[in-house]
Specification:
By secondary structure, this protein is α/β, with parallel strands linked by helices. It contains three helices and ten strands.
C-alpha cells in the first residue's frame, strides 16, 4: 500500500500504491517517523495509483492540510452536492511537497492531488491523470446479475471535474522502457 524512505539531500519519498484500509495507518507511521527525521521536503508518488476508497483519500489529504479544507464534492444529477472536508490531522502540512502523477493516477489519487494542488499550490509533476471522476453504485438485478450505475461526479475545490483528468504543473514524460 505504501513505501517510505529517506532519499539524498534529506528528502522523504512516499510511494502510495492505493487507497485502502491500511493506507491511513501506514501514512501515520511514516508521518511519525518524519517528525523525528525533519525532512527538507516530501515527494509523494501517486503514479499508477488506481485509487480506492474516497474516505481514505480524504483522511490522507488531512495529513497535508489544515482542518475544514474542501477535498472534493460529489455532485449529483439534481445538482445536490455532498462536500468532503479535511479533519484536524495536519501532521505533514508544514513540509514542502511535490506530487508525481501519470496517466495511471486515477480516482482517489486524482482527488488527493487536485486538493493539494489547490489548497497548497503543490506542483504536480508528470503526465495528465486518467480522469476517473464518477461515483458509481451497484444495483442488483433479477437472476443474480448486477448493473453499475453512475450516480454522481467528483468536483475538485477549484470546480474542476476529476473526470477530465488533472494537468500536471510540470509535464515530464517517462523515459524509454518506463524508466524514470
Amino acid at each position: 500500500t505504501l513505501d517510505f524512505k529517506m532519499e539524498k539531500n534529506n528528502i522523504a519519498y512516499i510511494h502510495l500504491y492505493s487507497f485502502n484500509q491500511k493506507s491511513v495507518f501506514k501514512l501515520y507511521k511514516a508521518a511519525i517517523s518524519l517528525s523525528f527525521k525533519k525532512p527538507d521536503g516530501i515527494i509523494l508518488d501517486l503514479r499508477n495509483n488506481p485509487g480506492g476508497y474516497l474516505e481514505v483519500a480524504v483522511n490522507i489529504a488531512s495529513f497535508f492540510l489544515d482542518k475544514d479544507k474542501v477535498i472534493v464534492k460529489e455532485r449529483f444529477r439534481d445538482k445536490d452536492e455532498q462536500v468532503f472536508k479535511s479533519s484536524a490531522i495536519g501532521l505533514l502540512k508544514k513540509y514542502p511537497l511535490v506530487i508525481l502523477v501519470n496517466k495511471g493516477s486515477a480516482s482517489a489519487a486524482e482527488i488527493l492531488a487536485g486538493a493539494l494542488k489547490y489548497h497548497r499550490n503543490i506542483s504536480l509533476i508528470g503526465e495528465k491523470t486518467f480522469g476517473k471522476g464518477t461515483v458509481q453504485e451497484v444495483k442488483e438485478l433479477k437472476g443474480g446479475s448486477q448493473l453499475k450505475v453512475t450516480v454522481a461526479k467528483w468536483i475538485l475545490p477549484d470546480g474542476t471535474e476529476v473526470g477530465k483528468g488533472i494537468e500536471p504543473t510540470i509535464e515530464v514524460k517517462n523515459g524509454e522502457n518506463g524508466k524514470d
